[in-house]
Amino acid sequence: MLVITFNRVIPLEERIEGIGRRIATEEADHLLAFAVSGASRLIRQRNSTIPASSRAALTDWILGAGPVLAWLAECVEIKPHVNGFPNMATRAAYERFHVWAVAEGFNRDKLPAINGFVQRVLANGTGIESKRMNTGRIFLGLTLKHEDVSTYASRYDMGGAV
User: Starting at the edge strand that comes first in sequence, how are the strands of the sheet with 87-89 ordered?
Assistant: First the structure.
């Protein structure tokens, strides 16, 4: 498996609806030649070419996943949710994660942004789900071991502010 980044958003006026199907039906011979060429190169090089952007994305993922995994292990309890409870706003969970990670010595600049945080929690927190509500996005099944925010913040010498 390989992380592939897609950095370009194709403008609406350049988009072609059903392009994959059209290529498969209208350009099947070129598609087959492309696949055979790629397979030949793979055999010849004995490895696939990994774009620099893929290496960077994988490194970012690995470095960002470490603090999230540590936070999940140390600070989170996963409980089955019934009728939407327990739940916690993803923004609140992210803020608590951020306070904890900085207090634990993780580099603030290397912490994932909220979207990456949510993806890592969902990928690694078996039993945690995400749901979009009219008030924002929430985690279902996630509770903090340190429920009292003031206790949680004071434990990390944050003066009660989260």
Answer: 87-89, 136-140, 129-133
